[in-house]
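[agent] plan:
  1. take the single chain provided in the ticket
  2. run structure prediction with default settings
  3. attach structure tokens to the ticket
  4. add a short note for the reviewer (M.T.)
[agent] executing step 1
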Amino acid sequence: MTHPRAQLNPAFTNPLRFSLMATLAGVTEISFKQAREYLQTTDSTLSKHASALEELGYVAVKKSFIGKKPTTRLAMSKQGERAWQDHLAALRAIAL
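[agent] step 2 finished; step 3 output follows
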């Protein structure tokens, strides 16, 4: 039997990515600005990590306009939800 740490998702070992996924797990979607402020990070850092999670299929990045103003919204994808739940299950198994 392998140790539960083998089930941890390496995409979530970065503290900001972990925090972003935890934030997205609690909402349907969130604006980029709200996520940046909540996570207390910079635009460039959040963009980098959100893009990495988007490439893995875990986060959906939705860009649109409100009038002439561009806006970006973040949401957890179904694939991201499954990966997040698996990661949390591995953490629980390690902690028990």
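[agent] step 4 note for reviewer: DSSP finds four helices and three strands in the chain.
[agent] ticket updated
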